[in-house]
Amino acid sequence: MPNMPKLLMAAGAVLFLVGLVWMLVGKSIPLGRLPGDIAIEKENFRFYFPIVTCIVISIVLSAVLYLVRLFMK
């Protein structure tokens, strides 16, 4: 349990950096508006499901975590 504060601080720092990068680069990378994302708009109804964006983020995170695990050995 003594490592929990360090883990929470590291997670907060990572979230902060991801948010900062997303804010700076978000205009040029159309995450959330990729072809294949489902968007249905009617008069009083709006449904949006970014399925392709979720898949891309999953693949990128999986690759990053694989590389981290590979180099930590």
Describe this structure in words.
This protein is mainly alpha-helical and 73 residues long. 60% of the residues lie in helices and 11% in strands. A two-stranded antiparallel sheet has the order 1-2. A hairpin with a 4-residue loop joins strand 1 and strand 2. The longest helix is centred in the N-terminal third of the chain and has 22 residues, at 4-25. It is elongated.
Radius of gyration: 17 Å
Give a quick account of the main beta sheet: strands, pairing sense, barrel closure. 2 strands, antiparallel
The poorly predicted ranges are none
Strand content: 5-15%
Q: Any idea what the shape is?
A: elongated
Mean pLDDT: 88
Q: Structural class of the secondary structure composition?
A: mainly alpha
Main attributes?
2 strands; two-stranded antiparallel ribbon; 73 residues; elongated; mainly alpha; 2 helices
